[in-house]
Design a protein that fits this description.
single chain, about 130 residues
Length: about 130
């Protein structure tokens, strides 16, 4: 995977297209995988957004412990069809996942802004 990541870094147009393909693959995996019952974990599709924007690599997606967990849940869902029974059809579940992921992103973004504001306030107090 690292060799493929290096190739994609040298070829940005191919990387852009592969990001779209990987995002589609991740959506398919998400729709097929087993849900564990942990709402925030089950409905986090941030990897889809990161692959669409090109801010992640194949090694980071599939070569990490969370990537292995995702592939294991995918295999379990595809082979056995076992899953936590979240209510609603796939369109509703995917919509909830998109909203949850966007809310998670904005919460992290707002917390970073708040932390930097607190740091600035502390530095001002230390100076005065």
């Amino acid at each position: 995977m690292e060799k493929l990541d290096k190739y994609l870094e040298k070829h940005p147009k191919v990387k852009q297209i592969s990001g779209i393909v990987v995002a589609g693959l991740l959506v398919y995996i998400w729709l097929t995988m087993t849900f564990t019952g942990d709402f925030l974990d089950d409905f986090d599709i941030s990897l889809v957004f990161l692959s669409l924007t090109g801010k992640t690599t194949l090694s980071q997606i599939f070569g990490t412990p969370s990537g292995m967990k995702m592939l294991t849940l995918f295999a379990t869902g595809a082979l056995f069809g076992l899953s936590f029974p979240w209510p609603g059809n796939n369109i509703i579940k995917f919509s909830v996942a998109v909203i949850t992921t966007i809310a998670k992103f904005f919460k992290q973004h707002l917390l970073k802004g708040k932390e930097s504001e607190e740091t600035i306030n502390k530095e001002i107090k230390a100076i005065t």
